Amino acid sequence: MTDGSGGDTEILASRLPAKITGIVFWGMVLVGLLIAVVVLKGRESDLGARNLSEARLLALALTERIEEGGLALAEPGRSRAELERVVGTLGAGLHFEALELRVGADVVRIGRRNGDQEAVSESLRIHGRQGVSTDGAMQLTVLFPSRTKTISEYRKNVLISIGLLVLAFGLILQQILQRMLSRPFFGMVATAKRFSGGSREVRFDETRGDEFGFLAKFINRALDSIEQQQADLRRALERATRSEAELFGEKERAEVTLQSITDAVITTNSATEVQYLNPVAERLTGWANLAARGLPLEDVIHLVHEESGQAARNPVPDCLANNSVEGVRGPAALRRRDGTVVAIEASAAPMRNDAGDVIGAVMVCQDVSQARKLAHQLSHQASHDSLTGLANRREFEHRLDAALESAQREGKRHVLLYLDLDQFKVVNDTCGHVAGDQLLAQLGNLLGHKVRNSDTLARLGGDEFGVLLEGCDLERGEQIAESLCQSVADFRFVWKDKIFPIGVSIGLVEINDSSENSAAVLSAADAACYVAKDEGRSRVEVFRGDKGGGERYGEMQWVARIHKAMQENRLLLYRQNIVAVAGGEGTAHAEILLRMRDENGSIVPPMAFIPAAERYHLMAKIDRWVVTNALEWLAAHPLTPSRQRQCFSINLSGQSLGDGNFLQFVVDELVRTGVPAERVCFEVTETAAIANIGRAREFIAVLKARGCTFALDDFGSGMSSYSYLKNLDVDYLKIDGAFVKDMALDPVDFAMVESINRIGHVMGIRIIAEFVENGAILAKLEELGVDFAQGYGIHKPEALLSPAAEDQAARTAGRVRSASAP
Q1: Which spans are transmembrane here (predicted)?
Q2: Over 90: is that where the pLDDT of 465 sits?
């Protein structure tokens, strides 16, 4: 196998015999010498001709200068200097060593004469010129180096040149031959380097026929033998150390796992001496692995209770003693080597050998400082009000439950205070919510300094606060409540250039073993607070079930029941027919009424829950529910030939009229359900319309423009009924039932009904009489010419039914009317 280090030409060159190389070299030397001899012979024959030619040229040049007057020989000293200058100029490049010039009697010599020189003489005639004889003659003798000397110098120079040439050629040839002969060696060196670099398949070139080929074959056989021996050795080592390698791999994987795990891992021996700390444990404890190795575990892992800072028990000793997994009891922290403390969670598990014997323990620690800090923050936020920093309603109810439990189990007594600010709305409306928030924060701080450390002060919502006085009797509770009331009364809230006096109404209730639950206690305190507001504000009222507190408490219970009934869809729609008194073809009319089914399935009359809904401002929400469900029912029961002019009345409260968004809500519902507006009549009470006269007029105008009709309910109950009637564009007047129910027996009531009926007809308004309970009342109404009648004597309210059932109800109402006729 070849190594690719040389080509065929290099192989042939490397086989060139050394003697041929020598013959070529010495042959070139002889050729060079022959050339030198020929050159020297030719040079010797040319020397005489060259000297004669140079002498003639110099003689002619000097003659011309003498004739021109440029060279005067009158004075020997001056003549010599001038002759040397002229000869130096004219004889530049000539090979003479000396010369002698005779002009007439004047003789000038330049240079030195010796016996080895060769003389060449030249005679010329000089024509007359200034300072020179007219027939003067010039004799120039030029002395050149002898031929022997010249040829010797040439021979030496030629030999030196030839020697240098031969030497240079020999060196070049030697380099070429050396490279040609050493290339196989360098090729073997390159192959050896590749082999030592890891290319085990590389072999030396065995194809050469010279010594290199033999050497390559020998080395290749040795390499093959070594490779075979190494392969056998590797296989033997693999077989011998496979189990050890597996064990080492498992250990290495375990170490890598411990290095990579995000928890702190500490291993100990059975004597609880530290054996190993992974990098996380080093960072957590502040101890380096090597420094901690062999130390008692207590010196490295110093556990303390997070809250008290007292020493906590390490789980490792228990783990080794019980041969079980053990954890740290309670919230613990680790005191690091530098003295800092970090919250941790830790557990320890025993380590066993192959025989199952416990040889130590592994302890795992987690840094939970951030998690606990976040948990504390979340716990605080979940139990405290973000504005005032006081306990929130959830936390207050939790502590109230605990107080109730202690009262019922241990007979303890506590007091609950319910505080409602009296002037908060004024500040909020005058200065904005930022000022209102600042007021609440300042009052929270003020009240917090007036209660005991064992008491709980909380913001229950809005401008309402609660105080739980634990272990306090009723008398002491009243004193604290009065103190809080006075402190708030003395407080002045300053905002920019305004000063506001603030008051607080406080409801107080005692918590004892007869208290029901937290909701009942809070409701009782709220009821007492309401009574305090009704009786003049900025005072304390104790709940005792009288002075309106019991009634208020009952209403508050209804609030919760109303909310629950709405959530569970237990509100019901009923209808009561309104019939024409004179038996004409008046519009088929009915009023939609609201009922509620209680938790036991019984029907609750409206006057049982409507007052509570009105007092706690739930009527707008209830009215929305009624409008939506009534219109959906009407959409599901379209008009038929037998009910072409059927119209239904829907009652609206004064709270809905005062709601700026309620009108748009009604319009949207009419559009959504697609119910013809002519089928809908809205009833509003006289007192509600008068209290919201502006909104009532707008409400009536917008919906009448869409086709709805309106009835003014309970007319005659107000003292200014007639004065407002002209300002309300209504279609019906419903006479207050208090006048109708006794009109057959009481002349005054009869006169009131007669007056309302007459005024209404004069204004073009149709009249509806309520509370028609018998035929005698119906006969009086017919006598007066009242248009419509409604009451239990005509039709008892019933749930909304199918169209067939409604027709049956209408026929029943007709029979009642006929039976009442005289």
Answers
A1: 20-40, 157-177
A2: yes
